Structures are given as C-alpha cells and as structure tokens.
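quick one, two chains, predict together pls
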Amino acid sequence: MSVERMDGLVAVLDAIRSDNGITQSRLAQRVGLGRTVVAQRVAHLEAAGLVVQDGLGPSNGGRAPRLLRLRDRAGLVAGADIGATGMAVGLADLSGRVVAQVHEQVDVADGPDVVLGRVEELVDRLLAGLADPPPLWAIGVGVPGPVEFATSRPVAPPIMPGWDGHPIRERLSGRFAVPVWVDNDVNVLALGELRTNPAAARAGDLLYLKIGTGIGAGLVSGGRLHRGVNGCAGDIGHVAVAEADAVICRCGNVGCLEAVAGGAALARDGRRLAESGASPGMAEVLAATGDLTAADVTAAAERGDPAARAMLARAGRLVGGTLATLVSFYNPGLVVLGGGVVHAGDHVLAAIRESVYRRSLPLATRTLRIEPSVLGEAAGLAGAVHLALDNLFTPERLARWLPAGSPSGRPELAAAPERVPA
Amino acid sequence: MSVERMDGLVAVLDAIRSDNGITQSRLAQRVGLGRTVVAQRVAHLEAAGLVVQDGLGPSNGGRAPRLLRLRDRAGLVAGADIGATGMAVGLADLSGRVVAQVHEQVDVADGPDVVLGRVEELVDRLLAGLADPPPLWAIGVGVPGPVEFATSRPVAPPIMPGWDGHPIRERLSGRFAVPVWVDNDVNVLALGELRTNPAAARAGDLLYLKIGTGIGAGLVSGGRLHRGVNGCAGDIGHVAVAEADAVICRCGNVGCLEAVAGGAALARDGRRLAESGASPGMAEVLAATGDLTAADVTAAAERGDPAARAMLARAGRLVGGTLATLVSFYNPGLVVLGGGVVHAGDHVLAAIRESVYRRSLPLATRTLRIEPSVLGEAAGLAGAVHLALDNLFTPERLARWLPAGSPSGRPELAAAPERVPA
C-alpha cells in the first residue's frame, strides 16, 4: 500500500496509543480529521492487527460508542538500559507495559561484544520465558555515553572503552531482524519519565538531571526530546562551575562540574576527610574496606556524619549553581533529579533547590518544581522501550506493513506480521 | 465550514508558504496526503483567495504541471519591533516580504500609551501610503522584556516601566480588529533569522545571542521557538559567570553576566580606564561629551585603542564562557550573535569563539558555527512579521474564513476576506 494513501494513519495510531480506550468521535476530534477518513484509517489499523474495538463508552443518548484500543499484545519491543556497572533488559507490549525484565551486573568497559552478547542472550531468555509470545518488533537501547542518534553509534564515549563508533544498531538488527534505536542513558531516562510519569508529561518542557559518577542532562521541549544537532545536548559534565575550587578535571580543564560534584569528586573529598580525621565515620569505612566510594559518603551523611553532610551540601550548591543557569536558559516546568544523588537525602535536595531559587530568574522559578525521580532507575528501561515504540510506527513502515488494497468496509482481522518491514 | 472537514488544510497552506511555486504532486508528497485530498484542499484555499495557480513547472513527459503559489497580496500583516531606544514598524505581504517600513527613535520607558499609540499611528500612515492596500490581517510585536506568550503581556520587564501586565494584545486588537501576538525581542530576532536566513533555517537547532545593553538568548529547537513554560527561556542576563569579578549587579546578586559584560558594564569599565589615564582616547571622548557609552568603547576599540580592545576581549571571554555552557547543554548547529557586539570588531568575536571552543564538549563544537547576524536589526522586524504569519493560519480560523459548502470542482476565486475571523 502506498504511503500516499496513509494520510493521518500514524496520527490516528498515536492518538490511540496515548489515549487507549478512545471513542471514534473523540479520535476524529483529536487528530482533526473527518469521521469518514478516521473510520477508514481505523479499519486499516484493525486489518493490520494493531487496533481492536473493545468495550463500550458512555452513550450520548443513542447507541453507546465502541472504544478503540491498541492491540497491545500484537507485538513486543525489547529495551536495554546499559549503565556503567549494571543493566536492565526487558520486554514490553505495544503500550510500553514491561511484561518481563531482568537486571544484572555488567562492566560496560568489557566492550560491546561481551555486553551486547549478554543483551542478546537475555532477550532470548526473556522471550523463551513467555508463554506463546507475540513477535519481537523493535529494540531500544540506552548506553552511558554520547551517541550519534541518526547512526546509533557511540561517539568517543569516555567510560566505554571499545565502543567508539561501534555499530550497535547493525549488530542487534542483524541478530533479531528488527529495527533498533540507540540513545544515551540520560535521554532514555528523560523519555522514560516523559512517557510514564504523569507530572513529567504535563510539564511539557522538562529537564532531567542525572547526578551520579557522571553528571548529564536530558532535555524535553514541547513533549519531545531535544537532542541537538550532534545528539549531545545535555552533556554538561564539563561545564565550568562558578565559585568552584580550581580542581583540574580529567578532561584537562579546570573547575568542571563533574570534577567538583560528580561521584569521583565525592569519593576523593570523602577520602580526604577520612584521612584528615574530620570524619571518624568515613575513616572507619576506609580502614575496613581500603576504599571509599561516593555511596559510602552518602551513607555516612544518612547516618548523620556532619563532615559528609557538609560535603554533600556543598556539592549540591555547586550543582544547583549550574542548574540555576540552565533553568534561566531553558525555563522548564519540572526538573527531575536522578542518579545516586536521589539516595543522598533531603539536605542535598535542599541545597540544590536553594541555589536554583537564589540564582535563577524569578519568572523561571515561579511554577518550577525540582523533584527526585519517583520512577528511579526503572525510568531507564521504560525509556528504552518507548524509544523503540516512538520510532517504530512511521508512515513508510506502516504502509509496507498493511495488507494490500483499501478495505472499504470492516476487514477481517488479519494476523499481525511476524516480521516488521525494514 | 467545520474544522473536521479541514484535515490537512493548514499543512497544505504551510507547505505552499514555505515552498512557493510548488507543484501539486510535490505538495502531496510533502504533506503526506493523497492527491485527491490535496486537490480538494487546494481548491478550498483558492476559494479563500489564499492560493493561486500561476506558471508552469517542468514537465515529466506529459503536460507541464501548474505551480501553486501563495496569493501573497491577499492580505497584509504588520510588525512592530520595539527596542529600548528605537523601533521599527512595517507592513508585509503574506510571504513575509516587507513592503513598507519606518524606523524611529522611541523611549520604551515613556510607557505603553505613548509607544503603542505611536505604533498605531505608524501602521495607519504606512497603510495610507500604499496604493490600494489589501486588508490588514494580523499584527506581531516584539518588546525588550519578558512576555507571557499566551496572554501577550509583559511580566515585570526591568527596562519597561509602566508595561508590567499591560494588555498589548487587547489594545492593538481593539484598535485594528485583527489578532495580535507579542513576544520578547530576542525570540523575535531568533524567529526572523530562522525564517529569512537560509543558514539558520538549515541549522534547525539555533541559539541567537543578543549582546547589547542587556544580554539574552533566543532558542530554536527542531525549527520552532523554545519559549519554556513561562515564556522566559533565554533570559540569561543574570546567570552567574565563572571567573568573573565579584561585581554586584542591580538585581542584587554577584557576578551576573550582564553586570560584567553588558553595555552598562562596558560603559562603567570604559569610564574607569578613561579616568585612570589607561586610555587617552576614551578620556578625550569623556572630556568632550561628559559621558562614555558602550558604543564609545566599541568605537575606541575600532580605532585601535589597546585598553578598549583588551576590555572588549575580556568581555568576549566572559560571554564566551557562559556560551560554552549553553552550547554543551543545548548543542545548537549555529549561534547567531546580535546586538551592539556585532559592531565591536573581530577581536571580540575571536574571544567569544575561543572561549566556546576551549570549554565546550568537543562533539558539540564539531560542526558548530558562531556568526554575527547577517540580517542585523532587520531580523527584528522580519521576526515580528513572521510571528504574526506563523500564528495566523490555524484550522479554526481557516474554517471560519472559508466560504460555506465544499467546492467539489474548481471554485470561483472568492474575494479575500476584509476581516480575519477572531
């Protein structure tokens, strides 16, 4: 079927995807198409096995209208949220609901063959664990480094040795014969919040700030990811921080955000406090384990260690200072905080908020909310799954997918395709 | 005519607006609609007097196809680009081509009654100067302060006393009986670049940085303005600058960008250099006029004054440091520089560029270009005009605008409406 005949088809499908259980008249209103056109498009989508009429809506006096639903069990998408030291792999139905998932330790520095090989095994295992699984239609992947979105290849990722330029899409697509999309972990987290956290969806303009080993942001503008022309928007780990100490960063510059407030900086400063005797609690941990991590500092602060608390509050102020600039510049409705910082307690959140409210334009903070992620790490897998779903249903792909000929009446329900057209 | 019947109408009109002289088959491809639907929509637009068939395109062997053009003389839009000390008011046809304009001095601090009264007089005068003018359909306005876009009202604008909350839309709409849109000056400049500078249109993700008395940015994401949830995105005059002196800003904070690199800061520092004897050239100007402005500093630098040059280069580095953060965060393809800085010579531009390339993420500067505006202040009037054009043609407005009944064949060319439906 030609693309020309498919006008409005994707819009109709997207409206049913985002408002599952919609009546046909409300659908026509929402997509701004006439009822006849919408009925034809719905018939196409039914013929393709993507949409079903199921249940009855409230009557307006006449016959109760049938509700249109995504046939969300028609196909599956896989998501892989690959972090520096762990990953989540899952399967989801077409509504984005995760139906099977597994989390495990992984060292991304083991390189793409090891890590992607493991992703493939886990997808196979999850598929095998489902009784009568529908076909796999697409895969979405998040990785902890910059990605050129158009080609799905990492670009000089600092903590992913061996991954630079690796053809992740071609590898997974070759193995599973489905389309694949790859993005950096923070964009994937932002997308997960946008699609599954109602407050994020309402905000429209959203800033996701991940503060962990690295520090990065995901930007949403008008309900869609802003990736920038090279796909690296939000890569703020090495911006210069006002009022910061002159710490030399691994990148060679001075006073980078990551070098004064990232996980390695917390570990470094915590060790200094432990060794100087300023924090007997952290000194104990260091003596017992021979090492001190950012998580140890956070744990010490939670136990009430004053030195650890002061250190985290200072890191919060430095992050907040940069965030204040970004808030004035971008004017988001919601800032979602993720990464290790969400375990660091309310005093860090308070320090971040205070800096933002002190330094941002008053108008930009009038309705701004700054909240730790309620989804936490689950946003990563949700985002990977929605990355696949958001890109899967294009006019071209749907056109090749649909049965030939234009169904004039109600078609027979066709089987969903085993294979997604390329 | 109901909105439901208008599916694709705005898309068809927008495609003809942006690709004037398009064939019907290319139009169908571009908007992704079937040829029959497109032919009907084109007939509607012809009936409304908005589109004409004019000229022949290249033949593909058969009959040469007719070209579709916007009937750009069907109506006029007015634009007003109001600055702190001057304004431009103009009339444009529906393609955005300015057909009449006037520039004059104005003091925005005289308040909305004086300034908008003058805008009204100038629009009247320009209309009276056109032989047989088509009807006025819309007005777009740029003002030098924050605006709540939805209501078109200024929000606590620092250099616009008397304008806070002023109902600019209601006033001009009441006077001319046309729809009115208002935005801040930097967004209007960014929109002007986007719509009339081919390099800006190609960039897609654009950052317009105006460095004058104030410092502000306009953001374009994926070809549309990113205004933020309160309409104040880009308001960066008071972000904290790394490596800046501890200058106290009029806002009460320390080290604000505007306080160290804005026009008032240049005048202040220039006066200090003049008085200390470090710059005999600027001392002469100060003695002769009793005052020293940012323009005087720029002029001194252009004459080769070393102290003025060093000062401007330092301001360029400070602006560049903040811009580096914004480039890493936003990853634009093009940064357009506007405001007084474009007259300050290549050494300032070089200082800005050097800071950005030194401190931004390498991937974010791989294809980045940083250019002074080629349109200059003309971008403001162009942007005001396009602000009106971009918002004028909604499905609802077109539906009320079109003649009743569905033209099945080629309709008679209807007269364009004298009045735009509200």
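Confidence is low (pLDDT under 50) at residues 405-416 of chain B.
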